[in-house]
Amino acid sequence: QVQLVESGGGSVQPGGSLRLSCAVSGFSVSNYVMSWYRQTPGKERERVAYLTSSGDITNYADFVKGRFTISRNNAQNTLTLQMNNLQPEDTAVYFCRGFATWGQGTQVTVSS
User: Fold this and answer.
1) Which of 84, 85, 79 is nearest to 106 (CA)?
2) Regarding beta strands 78-83 and 68-73, do their DSSP bridges make them parallel or antiparallel, or are they unpaired?
3) 33: closest CA among 106, 107, 96?
4) CB 89, CB 40: distance < 8 Å
5) Averaged over 76-98, what is the pLDDT?
6) In this predicted structure, what is the pLDDT of residue 55?
7) What DSSP string describes the chain?
8) How would you classify the pairing of strands 106-110 and 10-12?
9) In this structure, are residues 6 and 22 in contact, taking their beta carbons and an 8 Å threshold?
10) CA 66 to each of CA 4, 25, 46, 49, 112: distance values in angstroms, whole numbers, following the listed order
11) Average pLDDT of span 17-24
């Protein structure tokens, strides 16, 4: 059974950091494009970053470039999103995606 479970969300002050993890079962993260998305109420889900299955090529949305880093751990079959210098506009529910499957999401709130 394919399952993606996010964790690591929470509340931080502007300028703070969080590390999101996505535990994957049912397929290998090393074999598929893996992505992080986010969504705020009333807006469409938007892609934050993705990581290709070969060559470890990464791509980031302009609004997170230089602040967020996507990576995977093949041995643990997990996907990670390191988020630094968080700003209030980063407040959203963050989702991981792979194998055409979504996780349930984890809330990130940035406020002073």
Assistant:
1) 79
2) antiparallel
3) 96
4) no
5) 98
6) 61
7) --EEEEE--EEE-TT--EEEEEEEESS-GGGS-EEEEEE-TTS--EEEEEE-SSTT-EEE-TTTTTTEEEEEETTTTEEEEEE-S--GGG-EEEEEEETTEE---EEEEE--
8) parallel
9) yes
10) 26, 30, 18, 12, 22
11) 98
Residue 79 burial (CB count, 10 A): 27
Structure tokens at 93: 């529910």
**pLDDT tens-place string over residues 47-74:** 999 999 876 799 999 999 999 999 999 9
Name the token pair of 2: 């394919």
Half-sphere exposure of 89 (CA within 13 A, CB side): 3
Spatial CA neighbour of 108 closest among 37, 40, 9, 7: 9
Q: Which tokens sit at 58?
A: 């990464």
